[in-house]
Amino acid sequence: MITITRIDERLIHGQVAFAWTTAYKVDVVMVVDNEVSKDDFQKSLLEMACPAGLKCLVVDDEKAVKFLERNGNKRFFIVVKEPGVLVKMMNNGVTFDSINVGGIYFKEGRRQLSKTVYVDDAMIEDFKKLDANGVALDVRTTPSDTSEDLMKLI
């Protein structure tokens, strides 16, 4: 079961590794990224950043869907860099109740929605697709922050 899904371009870092995994009591941290999953060095860095006692997986979106189908009894924390990955997973049968949007940072062509969320037009379209499928989209940097509805910021 998916306990929490987060969009954060940094993937696994201090907040993800400790605050979120503690607040949501997960068994597995699953990084879903097609590029990073092919890079053994980046994979090993992410695995080292995972808290002791938690399983850490770095997989592409196809493997993520298959792994979730076979391991529904585990509590998953899914982390991705951008919403398009989650749209692909949703289109392949994965159900998301909610998604935390925490760290999408400034780049040329993006506009600011919150202190830590900058989006481009393609991301807005992906968020609209997720919203249209009943996925709650909240903006929080840490688990204790007040939740903001992403769709109201768009």
Automatic annotation (TrEMBL):
It is found in: Cytoplasm. GO terms for biological process: phosphoenolpyruvate-dependent sugar phosphotransferase system. GO terms for cellular component: cytoplasm. GO terms for molecular function: kinase activity; protein-N(PI)-phosphohistidine-sugar phosphotransferase activity. Keywords: Cytoplasm, Kinase, Phosphotransferase system, Sugar transport, Transferase, Transport. Its main location: cytoplasm. Residues 1-154 form the PTS EIIB type-4 domain. This is PTS system mannose-specific IIB component/PTS system sorbose-specific IIB component. The lineage of its organism: Bacteria, Bacillati, Bacillota, Erysipelotrichia, Erysipelotrichales. The keyword Kinase applies. InterPro entries: PTS_IIB_sorbose-sp, PTS_IIB_sorbose-sp_sf. The keyword Ligase does not apply. Gene3D superfamilies: Phosphotransferase system, sorbose subfamily IIB component.
